[in-house]
Amino acid sequence: MFDSFHHSNFFRLIGLASVVALAGCVPKAESDVVVYSALDQEFAMPILDAFERTTDHDTGVISKFDVESTKTVGLVNQIIAEQPSPTCDLFWNNEIMHTVRLQKLGLLARHDWNVDGGYPRDMMSTDGTWCGFAARARVLVVNTKLLPDPSTYPTSVAELADPKWAGNCAMARPLFGTTATHFAVLREINGRDATLGQLRAIAANAKILSGNKQVALAVSAGTVAWGLTDTDDAIIEKDQHFPVAIVYPDQASDEPGTLRIPNTIAILKDAPHPIAAGKLADYLVTPETEDRLAMGDSSQLPISRGSKFPPRVLPENPIRWMRAPFEDAADEWESWAKDVQAIFE
């Protein structure tokens, strides 16, 4: 596994090789903050650099990124392994389920999150240990050459199990990432047995690919007519002028709505630099940070009502969002993962 550390001023002076050598070291400045980030470095670093520029010169950011495909799992496992003597101050996760797992393990500190009164309750922990912001949505991406008539587009995640789409729709293997989170949430809404039955039907009906990006690529190439993916992967294909449309699923009154999976910020319990971590946490969970991520290539979806930039991935019509029981969905994660793996291995 390749890990990279970055301290912006230091990095510019001595290069990547020396920065990597800092792995596991405690920063010299008491006000430095160590961030483990599962958000891609290209998106996170400009924001972290901006934080350094807007604070006093004594506050620095040392960031650790994991570039493996299961990067979130790797960072979470490292946080768990470091529990007796934490190195990380703040965890910036690009999803939510493993943040909730750290919450359940008692590894996160409470924080007074400065968000507006109308902030969605499923985007904040019940105990103040994490806050969500800048989400991706779970959407259907459709090849408009294969399905030229919008009236024929799929409208629900459940259609992945519909025999009329046999071999002509796709989903990522639901063992990691947002697809795993999605079906854990559906388990809480629809029940364990019903969701396992749905997954068996999907496994027999849809093409199961290695990840959400691969689903979006298969749809844009016309390998399948449509698939379930994330907005950040879908918008890339649309921006590159491939023949794709984005459908926000499950909008009918008897359906659960479209799932948003936010970035999450959490301060580690017993963090070496809690004051600096709190300052950075407050900086990240703001409408301004959400607007920066909304304007970027991944077109992330602001949660705050104070956001001023509508991301291009959103349609003109309002979306009915799912009220997601993330904390309940993290319960019994290991046994649930084993049941899902038995279907898809």
TrEMBL record:
A Pfam entry, by short name: SBP_bac_6
Keywords (A to Z) from UniProt: Signal
InterPro entries: Ferric-bd
CDD domains per the UniProt record, alphabetical: PBP2_Fe3_thiamine_like
Origin: domain of life: Bacteria
Protein's UniProt keywords contain Signal: yes
SUPFAM superfamilies to which the protein is assigned, alphabetical: Periplasmic binding protein-like II (SSF53850)
UniProt protein name: Fe(3+)-binding periplasmic protein
Origin species: Rubripirellula tenax
